[in-house]
Amino acid sequence: MNSTLPVIAGVDGSVNSLRALDWAADAARLAGARLHVVHVWPITPMPRALGDAHPHPVPDPADPVLQEVRDRFAGRTGVPETRYLSTHGASTSTLIRLSAQARLLVLGSRGRGGFTSLLLGSAGRAAAMRAACPVVVVPDERRTEPGAGTQGRVVLGLHPEETSDAAVDFAFAEAERRDAELRVVTAFPNPYPLLVDPDSLPPGHRTSAELQAHAGARQEERLRPFSERHYPKVAVDPVLAQGDVAGRLVAASRAADLVVVGRHRHRLRDGGLMGSVANAVLLHGHCPTAVIPVS
Question: Could you give the domains of the chain?
Answer without folding.
Answer: 7-45+55-142 (3.40.50.620), 153-194+205-292 (3.40.50.12370)
